[in-house]
From TrEMBL:
SUPFAM superfamilies named in the record: S-adenosyl-L-methionine-dependent methyltransferases
Top-level taxon of origin: Bacteria
Annotated InterPro entries: Methyltransf_11, SAM-dependent_MTases_sf
Stated name of the protein: Methyltransferase type 11 domain-containing protein
Pro residues bias locations: 8-18
This protein's record includes keyword Membrane: no
Pfam families: Methyltransf_11
Gene3D superfamilies (alphabetical): Vaccinia Virus protein VP39
Length: 257
C-alpha cells in the first residue's frame, strides 16, 4: 500500500487589516525588497521631522512601532526609543534593533502622562478602529512643548483608489493590509489634535515617481536573476512633499503648555 500524498495547507485568508497578517509577514520587515519596503521609505521621511534631542534622557514613544523601522533613522539624535505595538513577533525584531519595547494597544499605553519629548504615530491611525483614542493617548504622553509626528491615509475616494485598488496590486504593499473604512479624514485629525492641545500642521507626501519605478524594475529584475534589491548599492526611493493631502499625508505639531 502506497503512502498517502502529503496534504498541503493553503495559506490562510484573513479579513482586511487583520493584525494576524503581521505575524504571517514577520520575515518581511527588514527585507529591502520585501512587502514592507515602503514603510522603510516612510520611516526615513518621518524621522526627518524629528529634531535632535534638546535634553539628556529625552524619550521618543513610537506608537505602532512594528519591527522598529524608525530606529536606524533616529541614531545619533539622542533619544531613548520606546516602541509600542500589539504584535509580539514584530516587537522581538524591534528589540534586536535597540528599541525598548512595550507590548500594548496604542489606545491604552502603560506610560505616564507627559513622559515623552516626541511621539511618533506612523502608519498606525489608518489601522485602528478608534483612531481618536490613539490621538488622545499620543497627546497625553507628550510633555508640554513635546512634538507629535505622524503620517496616515486620508479618507477620500482617491486614497481608496490609490492605496487599495492600485497599490495593493503592486509589490510595495501587502494585499489586504488596509481597510479603507478606517482611513482618517485630514480635517478631523487636525481638529482632534487641537482638542488635546496640539496644533497639527499637515502636508501631502508621496513616493518619488522615478525612484519608485526604478525600484520596481530592480525588484522584478532581482526576481529573475536572484539578486535582492539593495545589494547593488542603489538607494531606496524617497518620500517627497506634494501639494495635495488627498491620499497620504504627514503631520507635526507641538503640545501647548
Amino acid at each position: 500500500m502506497r503512502d498517502a500524498a502529503p496534504v498541503s495547507t493553503p495559506p490562510r485568508v484573513l479579513p482586511p487589516n487583520d493584525p494576524r497578517q503581521y505575524d504571517d509577514l514577520a520575515g518581511e520587515w527588514w527585507r529591502p525588497d520585501g512587502a514592507f519596503a515602503m514603510l522603510h521609505w516612510l520611516a526615513r521621511a518621518r524621522a526627518a521631522m524629528v529634531p535632535p534631542a534638546s535634553r539628556p534622557g529625552a524619550l521618543l514613544v513610537d506608537l505602532g512601532c512594528g519591527a522598529g523601522l524608525l530606529a536606524p533613522h533616529l541614531a545619533g539624535k539622542g533619544y531613548r526609543h520606546v516602541g509600542v505595538d500589539l504584535t509580539r513577533s514584530a516587537l522581538d525584531q524591534a528589540a534586536a534593533h535597540g528599541v525598548t519595547v512595550v507590548n500594548a494597544d496604542a489606545t491604552a499605553v502603560p506610560l505616564v502622562d507627559g513622559c515623552a519629548d516626541v511621539v511618533s504615530a506612523g502608519e498606525v491611525l489608518e489601522h485602528v478602529p478608534q483612531w481618536r483614542r490613539v490621538v488622545a493617548e499620543a497627546c497625553r504622553l507628550l510633555r508640554p512643548g513635546g512634538l507629535l509626528v505622524l503620517d496616515t491615509l486620508n479618507d477620500t475616494v482617491l486614497a481608496r483608489l490609490v492605496a487599495v485598488e492600485i497599490s495593493e496590486r503592486l509589490p510595495t504593499v501587502p494585499r489586504g493590509i488596509h481597510d479603507p473604512r478606517l482611513f482618517v479624514d485630514a480635517r478631523e485629525l487636525v481638529a482632534e489634535c487641537a482638542r488635546h492641545g496640539v496644533g497639527l500642521r499637515l502636508r501631502g507626501i508621496r513616493p518619488e515617481l522615478p525612484g519608485t519605478l526604478s525600484w520596481l524594475f530592480r525588484r522584478m529584475r532581482g526576481r529573475i536573476v536572484g539578486r535582492p534589491v539593495g545589494t547593488d548599492g542603489s538607494r531606496e526611493p524617497r518620500i517627497v512633499p506634494t501639494r495635495s493631502t488627498a491620499v497620504l499625508y504627514q503631520g507635526c505639531g507641538r503640545r501647548s503648555g
